Amino acid sequence: MYPEIDTPALVIDLDVVRANVTEMAKVATTNDVGLRPHIKTHKIPELARMQVEAGAVGITCAKLGEAEVMADAGIDDILLAYPIWGEPKLRRLAALRERARVRVSLDSPDVAAGLGRLGLRTGSPVEVLVEVDTGMHRLGRPPGRQTADLVAEIAAIPGVEVVGLLTLAGHAYRSRSWEELLEISRREGEDLVATAELCAREGVELREISVGSTPTARYAAEVPGVTEIRPGTYIFNDTTMMRLGVATEETTGARVLATVVGRPSPERVVLDAGTKCLTSDGLGSPGWISAVGLPYLHMEFLNEEHGVARLEPGHANYGELPVGSRVRLVPSHACPVLNLFDVAHVVEDGEVVTELRVAARGAVR
Ligand SMILES: Cc1ncc(COP(=O)(O)O)c(C=O)c1O
């Protein structure tokens, strides 16, 4: 399998990626919402451009560093879904705003005050989205009165313009049934729309309602009043999306190619991919890392350089997977895995066609 690539290596299946990009673009057009993919999943400008060419209205980044790389590549509409705090970052944001339309999400008047100073200094208000906590309990206040009060407070700060509300229903990742996932998705949209209506009654008109992780985007997009979805992981999917029922092995597009380097016992298979190539996210859940076409191979644990897997007890083919065999591993969480590789090897129609630089990897500031 791909003898021209030495392992461990990141392999991106372009056919799968194109299909995933097209499918989510269709979700957006069908529901008449904007698609603003989160590029922290791939960190690759060429893939961001593919998403925009397929109809995305712009991109979402978490970090200024990611946004700078994407602006260098000509992406000119960026949502920084992260509170930007401190003078060094505000200076970089000012420079970025000269090259792209940039919106920022936040959940505090303190962060808004810094942005307001920048807006006044440059004579152009910084557009912000106020983050709402729809159940993940990360950033944001609960929907309704508490958020409406925050919106009013931030809207009164000179130099910022509150254009909308944003949420990430990250608790959907923990949903235990399809019904629960659908309910979280619906609430993600409805809670924000109701909060925006409350803000409007109190004099602050909001035009953007931005929702949607990969598990929830397809369903939150259907809620009337939602204007934008921001899935990221959908471009590659991973075993978490498979567990949640929104992906299958066939729709996973980023795999770690690994070689068997040890068979110390009939059932144990040691691979040359550990935590330097894969993430321990999801460790302990069944199928947290899967091997394409090998449902009877179960990853047990990762050290830095070793992935230790086990063939199912009593499996007929203990002779399978001798040293030197190659396997394609589907990670439990695609985004941090991309952050571990300088380049991605791209395959199309089963052939290795090119390499892409993971240009925004390590952009933590
Ligand atoms: C603010 C924000 N929006 C969108 C996303 C994309 O979600 P997902 O990775 O489920 O596609 C993330 C992911 O962490 C996020 O933090």
Automatic annotation (TrEMBL):
This is Alanine racemase. The keyword Lyase applies. Gene3D superfamilies: Alanine racemase, D-serine dehydratase-like domain. Its EC number is 5.1.1.1. It comes from the Bacteria. InterPro entries: Ala_racemase_N, D-amino_acid_metab_enzyme, D-ser_dehydrat-like_dom, D-ser_dehydrat-like_sf, PLP-binding_barrel. Belongs to the DSD1 family. One of its GO terms (molecular function) is alanine racemase activity.
